Write a sequence for this structure.
């Protein structure tokens, strides 16, 4: 069935002057009260997953709009496979999932947060899906994370663990060794040859995702001995939503939920800081068919 959802197109300039495109759903200035533009009470900033786009989870976003809530979706530097991301200086950076540098995601997210803040909205929440969860947590880790009241993580899976499950640990380790050699020779931005890997990843991106040692290997539920320092350093309330039929993990959702519950405990005992873990029944990684459940949990969390 065809649908039409009203929205505003937006252009986000990040602190490092990269230009990102987005869509703003919900109250902004379409209506006026006593001559003043109507502003939402809260905004949810959506961070899409690896190689995805701002259009990927609109079925959830549309169910969140209203009741004083707006949703900002945007293309971060990792959208699609290979893209050019412009800057205000008219230069372009080769990015997309194949070439993006994971740590640049903090600049992308800060740009979106700043955009929402400039609209006069004080209550801002951050939501990430899939690898967008790693980006969100990285942005919020340590002394960062200012400007958001809370964070939602949908399907926060380990890309490293998922690839070892799909391709086998030996094949992944062999490709990692090849990528390391490329990086040492100064070829980190070059794509791995097809005989090494059947997907176009640059050497540095492959190492970041699949070496198990990159900054984005945050959700280490696959090894009980690992200490998820980055996740534990976040000082924001977090809602974690896991898919019961998750395709990208051989570990049961309830086991992963227990791991998150262990590491999201508030060490300061502040009852105003409450994190929650939910397993959404009957859905896979995309949460297709469970959009209403997901939206209901998010609305409750933001309240």
């Amino acid at each position: 069935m065809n649908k039409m959802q009203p929205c505003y197109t937006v252009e986000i300039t990040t602190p490092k002057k990269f230009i990102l495109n987005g869509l703003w759903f919900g109250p902004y200035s379409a209506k006026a009260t006593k001559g003043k533009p109507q502003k939402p009470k809260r905004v949810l900033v959506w961070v899409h997953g690896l190689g995805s786009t701002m259009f990927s989870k609109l079925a959830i976003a549309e169910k969140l709009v209203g009741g004083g809530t707006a949703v900002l979706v945007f293309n971060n530097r990792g959208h699609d496979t290979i893209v050019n991301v412009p800057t205000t200086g008219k230069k372009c950076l080769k990015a997309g999932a194949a070439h993006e540098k994971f740590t640049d995601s903090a600049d992308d997210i800060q740009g979106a947060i700043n955009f929402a803040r400039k609209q006069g909205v004080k209550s801002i929440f951050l939501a990430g899906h899939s690898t967008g969860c790693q980006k969100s947590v990285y942005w919020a880790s340590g002394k960062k994370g200012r400007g958001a009241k809370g964070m939602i993580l949908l399907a926060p899976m380990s890309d490293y663990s998922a690839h070892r499950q799909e391709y086998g640990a030996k094949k992944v380790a062999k490709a990692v060794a090849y990528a390391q050699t490329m990086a040492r020779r100064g070829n980190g931005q070059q794509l791995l040859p097809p005989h090494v890997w059947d997907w176009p990843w640059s050497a540095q991106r492959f190492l970041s995702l699949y070496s198990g040692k990159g900054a984005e290997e945050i959700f280490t539920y696959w090894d009980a001995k690992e200490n998820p320092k980055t996740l534990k350093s976040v000082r924001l309330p977090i809602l974690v939503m896991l898919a019961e039929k998750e395709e990208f993990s051989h570990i049961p959702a309830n086991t992963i939920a227990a791991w998150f519950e262990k590491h999201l405990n508030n060490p300061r005992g502040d009852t105003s800081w409450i994190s929650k873990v939910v397993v959404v029944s009957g859905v896979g990684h995309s949460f297709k068919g469970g959009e209403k459940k997901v939206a209901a949990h998010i609305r409750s969390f933001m309240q």
Q: What stands out?
A: The chain has a mean pLDDT of 91.
